[in-house]
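Interim report, section 4.2 (structural modelling).
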Amino acid sequence: MGNKSILVVGGGISGITAAVEASEVGYEVFLLEKRPYLGGRVTQLNQYFPKLCPPNCGLEINLRRIKNSPYIKFFTQAEVEEITGQEGDFTVKVKLSPRFVTDKCTVCGKCSDVCPVERTDEFNYGLATTKAIYLPQSFAFPFKYAIDAQACPGVQCGKCVSACPYGAIDLNMQPQTITLQVGAVIWATGWEPYDLKKLEQYGSGHYKNVITNVQMERLAAMNGPTGGQILRPSDGKAVSKIAFVQCAGSRDENHLPFCSGVCCMASLKQATYLREKHPEAQIYIFFIDIRALGRYEDFFNRVKNLGNIHLVKGKVGTITEDPGTKDVTVQVEDQEAGRLLNETFDLVVLATGMDPTSKYVPVDLPRTPDGFIADTVPGIYGAGCVNRPLDVAGSVQDATAAALKAIQSVVGR
Amino acid sequence: MAQKIGAYICTGCGLGEALNIEALAKVATGEYKIGVCKTHEFLCGPEGAAMIKEDIEKEGLNGVVIAACSPRVNTDVFNFPPEIVYDRVNLREQCIWCHPANDEDTQMLAEDQFRMGIVKVKEANPPDPYKVEEMATTVLVVGGGLAGITAALETAKAGRKAILVEKNDTLGGWAARLYKQVSLRPPYNELEDPDIRIRIQEVQSNPNIKVYTGAKMEKISGAPGMFTASIATKSGTVTERVGAIVLATGAEPYDPTKLEGLGYGKYTNVITTDRLEEMAAKGKIVRPSDGKEVESVSFILCAGSRDPEHLPYCSSTCCIDSLKQAIYVKKQNPQAAVYVFFKDLRAPGFHEYLYKRAQELGVVFFRTESPKIEEGANGLVIRAKDVLVNDEIEADGIDLVVLATGMVSTASFGEMMLSAAEEEEDKKGSGIATVRPDTYFKSDLLNLDYRQGPELPMLKYGFPDSHFICFPFETRRTGIYAAGSVRAPMDMQTTIRDATGAALKAIQCIELTSRSVAVHPRVWDNSVTEFFMQNCTQCKRCTVECPFGAINEDEKANPLPNPTRCRRCATCMGACPQRIISFKNYNVNQIGNMIKAIEVPEEDEEKPRIVVIVCENDAYPALDMVGINRLTLSPWIRVIPLRCMGSMNLVWISDSLAKGIDGVLLLGCRHDEDYQCHFVKGSELCNYRLSKVSETLSRLALEPERIRFETVAIMDYHRLPEIINEFAKEIEEMDPNPYKGF
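Predicted structure of the assembly:
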């Protein structure tokens, strides 16, 4: 007897899309997310290109689709430990890590007021800290606090437990393992920004004013660490001269040989953040090719005409820091001018590429040399950036297709 | 009408401490004579929810009002059977979290919001869902190229039936004319035989797919779950009943004769990508003028694309196609000189490996601007400005020049038409906002028998694409999904995924329609529009304004609704001046009565009242965020969420003013070219209707400034206090509404 349920691993835009699209055809879907809330990396973006609209707008609709669906059951802080069986009949072991905060939480915030421990805020890509008991982000769904088990000293502290008026904190909560029976699996765990440490020529992450493009999203975001002010990390100075370094790790034999597909548009978009917040700022974009496909060309043209935008063709060789001022100097061969350029900036944004997370799939799947899912095995499908580098619209398109492939695996069972 | 209502007030989350709960309960028990009114300290806990469920059974409730937290949270807890109408009164996020505790004005706000919630439920009935008799469940796919074949195959593999209609005598379209395709497997730099033939065989051997070749769509009438498709075939017209449609008619190459300076039509040895493909498939790449095997070939990229005079957009695949063809030449003759003239080499993702391969094989790339082609003594001459050396360069003695002409959507041929514009009177200088008309081309692809035109409206440059980044399959015609390069320029891999996704959407539409519910974005909504035809004046506002072309007209201009095309945004309800359009659980009277339920203090109390009508998709959550961030709002506001601002009926403005409300603030989504309205036109139409009321207000001797429309996105919560409080301040500074107490 086969199983008609579908498991979706990863609660980002691809996983959410695959889950809602399959459930709206009438299939039971289990959706797993590693973080304590749904939405994944798009929740950390300030705006989408090319419309410059907020990701939370579409997420609001998608989360409502989840809330209203009679067929979706989701788990946060959930990770797949093992998948056995075959198409139509998989057994999946899932580890649920404790949140230590129950459904009684009303988000009153009294717990974090008394919590004595600070932790690095991964939602803000390390640009801020939170308490060990924290609301992951202001649009979090589920809208409840969570405790970072790594940071929290546990019952020996217990200050939050006494502060909580609703008895919503249980520091003795234990990890659980659940078993799901499903007919098909969609793997949608997305990507990670390429590790800055590996980019020695750009300072390996040691320079405070050399940040990644994902961090730039947080600096520009209203719910980010600076309340939407683009201030440089070393001294909080408003940014008046900025460099975007394209292909930081991508299209590079020593790092990611492929093109990550989204970084050009992301940097063009981030140039608009600067232009809006600091109209006089000088913006340099160092690129190999500007890859603005299809109608995105319109956006490229729009940004080119914003003024004070300098598009320089050349791959940046090295970045150095002035230890005193913390200004950063970019060395690049300006191919058009045919000379070596040394230009100093307040802030450098590295357009780091996409490192696929498909390397973590606990199933023997065909992988590309770069770690993406190269092909499917019957009943297990990739969706979104585990398949190839994609932007948001492309991920949604890919995930919608994956939903049908999964349905094909369970139909008639 | 919900007769037996239970009202429940939560005292948790600080509500009990911030509000006078007893007084609040009296609103229900006293003013509205509600028999069952209970308070609970933890309503969303298991006991609270169980209490309500028990009352529903024991007391026979058919309506429930829950005054607690935002309806955006605890949706799983407060979940009732479909015969129960219910509403959530947002006392937490939008009351005590953004207004001071134990304050007279905060209490008045809570009581008014509670009154409105009770009235909303009182005035609602459970929907009476529309059931399609004899559901058609087949998916019709128009276009038999790669996208169409994929859509049909993937539909069939999901156990559904598909009909594939292709205008040519054979399937395969453009893909069938390819010599080689780029491998989509590692190492991604190989060329392989096109797999389209295998796909065609799969289609032909699949019993779930019926194929019509040499056929086109003569007419499509009906609606999802009940389309009637007339297909003109060589042996006459065939009629099929289908449930949903995929439009996959692809793209055509841009007309190269329009490209001045590139020598097409002038020099025999200047050809296009297509022609080279054909030549390669036949066996040898030769010089057309004399049949000599080529020794030097130049590829001119962006021939037409990225050019405001021709195609302003990038055609997405020409770089990759040209890399592939450059490799053809190198494989035929490794010594051949192969040059690529490009602006940006756009080889995204794994196509980077193909780019590398071409470089390794010795293909030479020039980043240039405005190349010109002439004939010289030894062959063709290309002159261009090399951007890298900032100088003119010249390539002489070229045997063959290949123009990578861009792609043009098949939906963009034919006469350009405007819909929804013909009824608009001349509005110049009248102060009335304009509504951007929808544009479509009479491209003869679908021939829909729709009041709003026979083809899908285009988004830009002739592509009938979705404007939503999060929802690329969103369509302006319910149940009809564009897939592949008809909707946007895309490569083969993307086309395959796109067509598979479109097949899913088509199947999903059929499935949801069979369950009598709406598709995205109000999926699972089973309410249905009702038209009180006796009062219809045949003004056509509803048929013109429906963003989804759901309503047809008869010859006397009476509206003919198609419930399965309807997306439940209620834009028609907002459009109707006669107020004849309603839903059982959402209607003009209901919201009018909610407004009338607001207690308006006497003039001398100096407590103005402002009705804030908001979009429930963006502005409403933004208001929640105001509370979550503990920002403060004016106490004068009374919030009413709408399904979409398109459903805003002007009578509510009159209702408000007649009641003595001092101002009305409307918060809708962005409605310009980069619109964010999930129902495409709703917010824009709301703005348009409002632009017509100022004259009426002046006639009533009321200041037009009492009514304001602002666009707000979900992340604008930090701006909301300013918008709302500024408006409140302006209202305070005006004289009170003279109609108070009438």
